[in-house]
Design brief:
The protein contains three helices and twelve strands. It is mainly beta and 243 residues long. It is globular, with a radius of gyration of 17 Å.
Length: 243
């Protein structure tokens, strides 16, 4: 049940800003931002899921494409042995191949962003829908874009909307909003830094990524939380292009 905040500019020459919080089972191995797919997706950087080989988040700086994946419930009837990992979706997206038709995967929200605009593709096992993002600030979680029934969106979207992203670095005030939200218990429905174990799901917030997308490329950085489901000072590494 990840959370993504995105600000789409009025002027397409200005950068689109994204902060993404990754919720995952701490026991599932993963690698931080890097070029983990040199043979199949050269030049693509992303957060690597070691078990299935795909990505939670991916970016192609050469084409200014960015994508991040969020799980959502579905009513699909595909057996487990017929399901394709959702981690293939961000990699395909930044390579110019968005999902279409009836994806052979479990439910998802896939945020795609480029200088041409941003949209969320949502698959619930029955239909694939696209929601184009208008200029402004938006949030995505486990249901629809800007879903008023999702407590964390209702609580924090107005606060993110009011926050300035022209500071240096640009993500400073958005991180302050996340820090403010972390005063809530990680089990609170309004929390952005989350712990889902009390509802039988083994996922906790593990990672924060920040991304800026404009016609000159994509700059993305990541920072691991001090402990799963716990907020603390973050240290963002250099953009992978500089590593």
């Amino acid at each position: 049940m990840c959370t993504v905040i995105i600000r789409v500019p009025e002027d397409p020459r200005r950068p689109t800003r994204v902060i993404a919080i990754r919720d995952e089972d701490p026991g599932r191995p993963w690698n931080p931002l890097g070029r983990w797919w040199p043979d199949t997706h050269p030049g693509v950087i992303g957060v690597h899921d070691v078990r299935a080989g795909g990505a939670w988040l991916a970016a192609d700086p050469a084409t200014s494409r960015f994508a991040v994946l969020l799980n959502r419930a579905d009513d699909g009837t595909l057996p487990d042995d017929a399901v394709v990992s959702r981690g293939t979706l961000p990699l395909a997206s930044v390579s110019g191949h968005s999902p279409s038709g009836s994806p052979r995967s479990r439910g998802f929200n896939l945020l795609e962003a480029s200088p041409a605009g941003a949209r969320v593709l949502s698959w619930d096992g029955a239909s694939l829908r696209a929601a184009e993002l208008t200029p402004g600030t938006h949030m995505i979680a486990h249901d629809d874009l800007d879903d008023p029934q999702t407590a964390r969106i209702t609580a924090w979207l107005p606060v993110f909307t009011a926050a300035d992203t022209d500071s240096d670095p640009w993500w400073t005030q958005w991180l302050r909003v996340i820090e403010q939200s972390a005063e809530l218990a990680a089990t609170d429905d309004r929390a952005l830094i989350r712990d889902h174990r009390h509802i039988g799901i083994p996922t906790l917030s593990l990672l924060v990524a920040v991304a800026s997308i404009d016609p000159d490329g994509v700059e993305v950085r990541d920072a691991v939380l001090p402990a799963p489901g716990e907020w603390g000072p973050l240290t963002f590494g250099d953009a992978p292009a500089d590593r």
